[in-house]
Amino acid sequence: MNTTFRRPAAALLEQRLGEAPPKRLQILAGPRQVGKTTLVTQVMEARPLSSWRFLRADDPLQRATLAAEDDATWLSRQWIEAEVLALRWQQSGHPQAALLPFVLVIDEVQGLKDWSATIKGLWDGALARGASLHVVLLGSAPLLVQKGLNEALTGRYELIRVPHWSFAEMNEAFGFSFEQFAYFGGYPGSAPFIADEARWRAYVLDALVEPSIEKDVVAMARVDKPAMLRRLFELGCAYSAQILALSKVSATLGQGHELTLAHHLSLLGQAGLLTGLSKYAHQVVRQRGSPPKFQVLNNALLSVRSAHDFAAAQADRSHWGRLIESMVGVHLLNSAEAGTRIHYWRESPHEVDFVIEHHGRLAAIEVKSQVGHVAGTHRGLAEFAKRHLDARCHLVGSDELPVAEFLMRPAAEWTR
Q1: Residues 342, 370: contact at Cβ < 8 Å?
Q2: CA dist 289 to 246, 257, 272, 316, 356, Å?
Q3: Could you give the CA distance from residue 136 to residue 21 in angstroms, rounded to a whole number?
Q4: Do 226 and 263 touch, CB atoms closer than 8 A?
Q5: Alpha carbons 145 and 111: distance in angstroms, whole number
Q6: What is the CA angle 190-175-415, rounded to 5?
Q7: What are the tens digits of pLDDT across the range 191-216?
Q8: Phi/psi of residue 24, nearest 5 degrees
Q9: Is the peptide bond before 291 cis (omega within 30 degrees of 0)?
Q10: Predicted confidence (pLDDT) per residue in 249-263, tens digit
Q11: Whose CA is closest to 268, among 296, 303, 239?
Q12: Of 181, 35, 19, which Cα lies nearest the Cα of 100?
């Protein structure tokens, strides 16, 4: 691994933590195992040691001093101590003390009972006292973190989005080839195991998939039928980049109302696992009523339960084509900034793999995932262009636009 590699969000966090006085809580939001803690640690270690404090809410060693404390008491005590350290830092005479406010980092914050209400009171109090204190919060349960933000901290925080790793990042940090990224996906923790696929599969399932479902979805949201959610997840991963009506999913699973399945799919999407793209249409009601196009948010989730190993996947043209199309969807969703929506388009008999909608601009993306395709077979792209005269149209995988080149630019840029 390239030990000097830093994700782009690190620069944004560094910039915000240099602002004086602090204006908002900084929240790192993203799926499990995408390197949020590593990113914050890298930023902190570039600062003077006396200018920050890092707490893990789930660390028994940090909680052992006063084991009888409830969560609110422990958090309040740590916060007060951080304000004292912040004042000492300001008065230290260090050349950077006047420019860099003190930083308190709290990891695994979702493990604290009523954490958002407690932090709201502490933050408002710190602002009233004029404390020069930046606060960074991060956690491994996206659903619970988002719930806490919505319940108590509205207007008091800024989100720094930390998505799954892109091809460019996996290539720079771990030397992943285009083919390796298509099959093994973008989980950094799994990268050391790809030479031993059995070990790689065990890691992805045991360290990523199972905790994400059990701790980030089932335990953190109201899931009446967890077994059905798991089966939906497995089916959706197997059908990534394919359109499948929820009525058919219900019939396949043998259980579950369509509204329940839609709710479960939404939860899986919020956890950074699996989502369902809606059909692009001018009327929002037509988008919402459309059958979803299943899409994993990391291609590892498609490959991990597949019967194909890496070599077999490349040899099977049909399966490899599905991996490539899914990878394009992964890239579009993970690189989509605020205000960017990703859809598919289908008006029988015409279809386009992906549609990017960004501030009124459109781009249609067709993936030429198998050799032997010729331009005349992409009638859906031509039909979309005819109906949407201002749309940009791109044939990804053509000589003019190789897939690897497409993966180097974020979704919104393809609408310009």
Answers
A1: no
A2: 10, 15, 23, 34, 19
A3: 15
A4: no
A5: 10
A6: 95
A7: 999 999 999 999 999 999 999 998 88
A8: -145, 155
A9: no
A10: 999 888 778 999 999
A11: 296
A12: 19
